[in-house]
Design goal:
Blueprint (H helix, E strand, L loop, with lengths): L15 E3 L2 E5 H8 L3 H9 L12 E3 H17 L3 H27 L1
Antiparallel strand pairs: 1-2, 2-3
Length: 108
């Protein structure tokens, strides 16, 4: 049985818990996403990745998941990063709507 090599997308996201929420440093996020810290800085500057607060160097695990989805669209499908950010936003909205529908159906 062959094992697949661990890529940044198969590696778990590990961060520092603070107040019940997980945060990652910029370096941890870059490593988890398989990009350089300099590239992460550029993505933040473009507004494609958002730190916890403007100018901060900490990111939520949600930001890490979003970034990994964006990079997967970029690498696998050739979608530019701005387009990938829009697609990820739309996917997240769909997921929220579907979860709300499930919740409402369960209340009936």
């Amino acid at each position: 049985m062959s094992t697949r090599p661990r890529t940044p997308f198969s590696m778990p996201i590990v961060g520092t818990p603070r107040g019940g929420e997980m945060y990652l440093s910029g370096e941890e996020l870059a490593r988890a996403a398989g990009i350089s810290p300099a590239r992460l800085v550029r993505l933040v500057h473009l507004g494609l990745v958002e730190p916890v607060t403007p100018g901060a160097s900490q990111f939520t695990v949600t930001a890490a998941v979003r970034l990994r989805r964006m990079l997967r669209l970029y690498r696998d499908l050739g979608v530019n990063l701005a387009g990938a950010a829009i697609i990820v936003d739309l996917l997240e909205r769909l997921e929220r709507v579907e979860a709300e529908l499930v919740r409402q159906r369960a209340m009936r």
